[in-house]
Structures are given as C-alpha cells and as structure tokens.
C-alpha cells in the first residue's frame, strides 16, 4: 500500500462504506449502487489508499447483496478493499468475491482479527491477504481480556505480528496493528496515554520493523459539543491533536473519512494544549480537563 499525502503524509483507509453513517445506510437500504459507487469514487479522489467495506447485518441475511456491492465498488475504483466482518463465512464470501486484478494486483485486507478471533486466519488458505489486528484485547488462559496498559497493547501486537510472520509467512509490511483510540469523555484510566506510549514502543522495536500502526478516530470526540472553547470544530481538532502527537511517534495509517482536513496543530493551539494536559491526568481529574475542551474555566 502506498503512502497517501494528507496533512500528515499517512495512509488513509476510507471508512464511509458503513451503515453506521446515516447517509450510507440510506444508500444500502435503497440498493443505490450508483450512490455507493459515487461514495467510493469520492473517497478515492480524496486520497484513500484503500476502502473499508461493510454492509452491516445484511451481509448475513442477504449475502448476495454483499457480493453485488463489492463488485460494484470494484467496478468504480481500482483500490484494494478492507473487509470488516468478525465472522468467517462472511469474510470468506468477501475474499472469494474480491477481484485482485481490479485492485491493481494489491491484496485485500481482513479486518479485524484479534487473538480471540484467530480462527479467521484459517481463511488464509483460500488466498493471501493483509491483516488488520486489533489489540484492544488479548487471550489469557483461554479467556479474552481487555487491554488497558501500553505494555498490554504492545505485547499483544508483537505476539500477533510475529505469529503472522512465523506461521503464515506474512510480511510485516502487510500487518496493520489497530491500536484503539477511545472517546476522551470516557477515558478515566489513561487509555489515550497508554495508546501513545504503545505506539512509541512498537515503532522502536527492531523485531517489528515494517509493521503499520493505525487506528480509527470515529470515537475520539463522542458525546462532546460540536464547538471547542476557542470556537473551532472540536471533534476535528481532537482528531488532529491526537495525530499531531501520534504520527511523529510512528502512527502511519488511519481509518477515516478521507476528505476531512487532517493537519498538524501548532503548539499554541488551544485544543492541543488541553489534550496534552488531559494525557497527564486520570480519574475525575481527567474529566475536569475534558470540560476545558469546550468550556473555559
């Protein structure tokens, strides 16, 4: 996957073909293939290097429609697709439908494998693919447990990446580590701090040279007002604040709306300053700092 210039020069994975967006849900419900194709084209023109694709629960109730949507997208854009389903039958259908030639010979991505969903790797026998590994959880003594520290994130990521390389021959450059980026409004345990520390640790690990470190930014500004205390777009500013710190640390790909104006923030930016303060806090102190994002105190 080539690097796509954005404000940060990182790889953009377009996330708009997802019924979680109301406008996309309407396109899918109306079987508006032309509209879905236009959405794919818009993401490609905005700089997306690949497109994440999910049609939600309809993939199970109407699998033929999933086939139709994948083919329509591939008729419209020459980009590789990233299939976002946790169940093997649906992923298998996606992989069997995917036309690699239409994607310029590029492999598809399977999103999202976790240690608790490792059975999805059985699909690798069908065809090679690149892998998006979520490290928000690990398996410990046969039980899935949530990761909460930088050490947990980093160790889970390293274990999965090396296992993919050793057992399946997948090059590390074809492994994308999805490090969870949570909502700041609910982060009283220092999860954002742990995420950034894990990015630093993974990028510095010589055994993991070549892996991609990525994440989605959809949740970061969840349940916050639209405007920051300085009048700026609060969600966009928070996304850019995270990227301003994460990209220099080694974060190199993002699941996002490609046409959003991602760009580094200057040191004196109000939201960036508050976000830095937030990273130093935990518990109710963190929540007090979050309020400063939208209300000067």
Written description of the protein model:
This protein is of the alpha/beta class and 297 residues long. The chain has a single domain (11-294), classed as Dihydropteroate synthase-like (TIM Barrel), CATH 3.20.20.20. The protein has 10 helices and 10 strands. It has helices at residues 22-29, 33-45, 58-61, 63-76, 88-97, 150-168, 191-204, 234-249, 270-279, 283-294; strands at 11-17, 50-53, 81-84, 109-113, 130-134, 137-140, 143-146, 175-178, 212-216, 253-256. An 8-stranded parallel β-barrel has the order 1-2-3-4-5-8-9-10, surrounded by 4 helices. A two-stranded antiparallel ribbon has the order 6-7. β3 (81-84), α5 and β4 (109-113) form a beta-alpha-beta unit. α2 packs across α4 (63-76). The model is unreliable at 1-6 (pLDDT under 50).
- Count of beta strands: 10
Distance between the first and last residues' Cα: 45 Å
The rough form would be described as globular
Oligomer: single chain
Q: Biggest sheet, in brief?
A: 8 strands, parallel, barrel
Content of β-strand: 15-25%
Mean pLDDT: 95
